Amino acid sequence: MSRKPDKRIEQAKALYLKGMKLVDISKQLDLPEGTVRRWKSTYKWDNERSDKNSERSNRNKGAQPGNQNAVGHGAPEKNNNAEKHGLFRKYLPDEAFSIIDEMRDKSPLDLVWDAVQIQYVAIIRSQQIMYVRDREDKTIEKVGTQDGNVIGEKWEVQQAWEKQAGFLKAQSTAITSLKNTIKDYLELEGASRADAKEQVQDWKTAIIEIAKRRREKADGRTN
What we know:
The chain is mainly alpha-helical. It has ten helices and two strands; from the N terminus they run αααααααββααα.
């Protein structure tokens, strides 16, 4: 027996196409914001919203009948000056603009949390990329050739201890940056500056606690 489609999907879509923010839609329909965001992505509401905005923009470009003020001052074709992100669209590639468009409904707190996760993933991933096996694990790479009186090749050698020292330095810098980002998140979330500094001393515990609070908050909206 097929399952009936959730009527709330169409309700949420209609509100979104009217320009309502995801967080407001979730409150009005008593849904988790993550659910509404997933629907938006799954059913590609942005495509319909863009088409709708484009139609509205084209209608607004036409002059009112008998309006002499508009004569000779019509906006050129494909003019994005009226768009909210017209400047971005003018200079940024489509991929970058699409990322900005996806960020539209994110709060500053969400952006900092995303940065925490991205930094932490990069630190974990670097373990495989920068791993030094043992004392004999050196890297030999051809970096150029020489012509003229002396013909030969130029090679660069990185000894194991040099690679390890570089890895430790990069790791230390990355962890310091992560700790600062977590501190910023804790402060934005409401912790006092003193509390944030104390909690960030153990950044791993801080990440777990933040994730726990966000999960409990989400569960509370679901129930």
